[in-house]
TrEMBL record:
Stretches that traverse the bilayer: none
GO molecular function, one term: ATP hydrolysis activity
UniProt keyword ATP-binding, yes or no: yes
Keywords: ATP-binding, Nucleotide-binding
Any one of the GO BP annotations: DNA synthesis involved in DNA repair
SMART domains associated with the record: AAA
Residue intervals of the AAA+ ATPase domain: 38-150
Pfam families cross-referenced by the UniProt entry: AAA (PF00004), AAA_assoc_2 (PF16193), MgsA_C (PF12002)
Protein name, as recorded: Replication-associated recombination protein A
Entry's family note: Belongs to the AAA ATPase family. RarA/MGS1/WRNIP1 subfamily.
Entries under InterPro entries matching the protein: AAA+_ATPase (IPR003593), AAA_assoc_2 (IPR032423), AAA_ATPase_RarA/MGS1/WRNIP1 (IPR051314), ATPase_AAA_core (IPR003959), DNA_pol3_clamp-load_cplx_C (IPR008921), MgsA_C (IPR021886), P-loop_NTPase (IPR027417)
């Protein structure tokens, strides 16, 4: 059985690695490790098909160490023991451990002393954030390097190399690839080189040659041979939460086009629930009192989106994202409640004034509950100065109004006037 093209074209040394030049380029850290033969265990973290296995294979090839590959989820401790025995007999082994975030405690405990002694150079590969998913005992003994989706230029370099390589690639086929087909292969997989290479191989091997023994790959053939990927296909992956974060921050920063871009990623992933939740939070956290009416329209748009579902939900969602981006912003509401919560959690609460305490039970009068309470509606303008905060918190201002929107400008005027009147009256009482 012949291995897939992506497997056959794995780099034999660091010079053959495409992309990830921040790690393997001249003068960069992994390149320096290999040149100095001072390898340390590492975790490579990033999306599928971006070169984690390739880098591990290239490190082994460049150093001439034995290279073994296991999966933390499916391979047992026995397979680890076999690798350990090989390392004891023949020297250092470079072990690529896929899905290292799924390494259980038994396998971890077996590996740790081997990492300490240097018998095994562990290269863990994961698509999950290692700072969240990987045990601290493993993290403390490894360096963590993030790998990024490959650029179309990186993928094109690898595809053209595979088309020319007669030993491992498709060089023994006479292939004519149109520029449109090449562009699709380089852009349709969201930086996943493995998918691009395997799509190219399927196109070449499933397309009959013409009378000149040439295999012609046009755009239609390419489209039928490759599975397109979106940048946010995994609703539970770490990258998905990065998109959600970028979505809210783009709205907060009033960048309409960026917000629409991240909305499109989330829509393509089909995660309507996350979009709705994030928009509702964003409306009240970042726009809030600067424009309460747009908060209400956000609620309405989210209800419509939820009712109609995808793909039509994209219409009200796009409208409200544009409006949120272009609205004045204020976070005074969240700042106010967080300041109040901080006082409560740090023990600043105090006794509720007797005048405000409940009086709807027998004996309340004997306890002086509700005495000296002034019912505001009995006074001009339905207001009278009296104490509401506990003694130790009198004069505290949790709400710090902002003036980006006309609505909150009006709130600020009222708040400032009432605060001054209330505290002026308190000053008379203090005297």
């Amino acid at each position: 059985m012949q291995h897939p093209l992506a497997y056959r074209m794995r780099p034999r040394n660091l010079e053959e690695v495409v992309g990830q030049q921040h790690l393997v380029g001249p003068g960069k850290i992994i390149k320096r490790m290999v040149q100095a033969r001072l390898l340390s265990s590492m975790i490579l973290y990033g999306p599928p098909g971006t070169g984690k296995t390739s880098i591990a294979s290239a490190i082994a090839g460049s150093t001439k160490y034995a290279f073994r590959q296991l999966n933390a989820a499916t391979d047992s401790k026995k397979e680890l023991q076999i690798v350990a025995e090989e390392a004891k007999m023949s020297g250092t082994v470079v072990l690529l451990l896929d899905e290292i975030h799924r390494l259980d405690k038994t396998k971890q405990d077996f590996l740790l002393p081997l990492l300490e002694s240097g018998e095994i150079i562990l290269i863990g590969a994961t698509t999950e954030n290692p700072y969240i998913t990987i045990n601290p005992a493993i993290r403390s003994r490894t360096q963590i390097f993030e790998v990024y989706p490959l650029t179309p230029h990186d993928i094109q370099t690898a595809l053209l190399r595979a088309l020319k390589d007669k030993e491992r690639g498709l060089g023994n086929y006479q292939v004519h690839l149109t520029s449109e087909a090449l562009e699709l292969f380089t852009t349709a997989t969201a930086g996943d080189l493995r998918s691009s290479l395997n799509g190219l191989e399927l196109a070449v091997k499933s397309t009959p040659s013409d009378e000149n023994q040439t295999i012609n790959i046009d755009l239609k053939t390419a489209e039928e041979s490759i599975q397109k990927k979106t940048l946010s296909a995994d609703k539970n992956g770490d990258g998905h939460y990065d998109v959600i974060s970028a979505f809210q921050k783009s709205i907060r920063g009033s960048d309409t086009d960026a917000a629409l871009h991240y909305l499109a990623r989330l829509l393509e992933a089909g995660d309507l629930k996350s979009i709705i939740r994030r928009l509702l939070v964003t409306a009240y956290e970042d726009i809030g009192l600067a424009n309460p009416s747009v908060c209400q329209r956000t609620v309405a748009a989210c209800q419509v989106a939820d009712n109609v579902g995808l793909p039509e939900a994209r219409i009200p969602l796009a409208d409200v994202v544009i409006e949120l981006c272009l609205s004045p912003k204020s976070n005074s509401g969240i700042n106010a409640i967080d300041a109040a919560l901080n006082d409560i959690r740090s023990g600043k609460s105090g006794q509720i004034p007797n005048s405000l305490k409940d009086t709807h039970y027998k004996g309340a009068q004997k306890l002086q509950r509700g005495q000296n309470y002034h019912y505001p509606h009995n006074y001009p303008n339905d207001w009278i100065a009296q104490q509401y905060l506990p003694n130790q918190l009198q004069g505290t201002q949790y709400y710090q109004p902002k003036t980006n929107g006309k609505y909150e400008q009006a709130l600020k005027k009222t708040y400032d006037r009432l605060y001054q009147l209330q505290n002026k009256e308190r000053g008379h009482h203090d005297d």
